[in-house]
Every structure is written in structure tokens, then in C-alpha cells.
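Please check this chain.
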Amino acid sequence: MNVWQRFSLGEYDLYLKIDDCCWLIYWRLFGIVATSYELDPAFYYTLPSFIWDAMLKHTRVNFELLTDVNMVLFIKCDICV
């Protein structure tokens, strides 16, 4: 017995409605983000990575590269713990 028979979904009506709702939500998000942050949500696998880039773009923060070996080791040791 498959899912469609179990829940008597007929001709995939529920699936199509859910798919349409998700597509609509995506395009509304895309419209808002494209105009305000100039970022494409299709390039991001997760929402946190997208939000991180939006935050960096909004705040105009530039990170410095770590050139001191001690600073790199300090951060590496902190991550491993």
C-alpha cells in the first residue's frame, strides 16, 4: 500500500497544493531578498548560511585574514574542544 492509497489523496491533489504553496513562498522570499539584499536564495543550502551572508551585506562588515599563527592556533584549539 502506498502513501497515496493510504491517505486517499486521489490524483496527487494534496501534493500539488503543497508544492504550489512552497513555490509561492520561495518566489515571495526571492522577490524580497533580490530587492533588499541582492542575494539569490537558490545559491544557499541552508537558511542560516543565507542569513549570515545577508547580515554581512547589511552591516558591511569586512573580516580580516588571520596572519598571526598564534591567533590561528587559538581559534583551532577553541573549535576542537
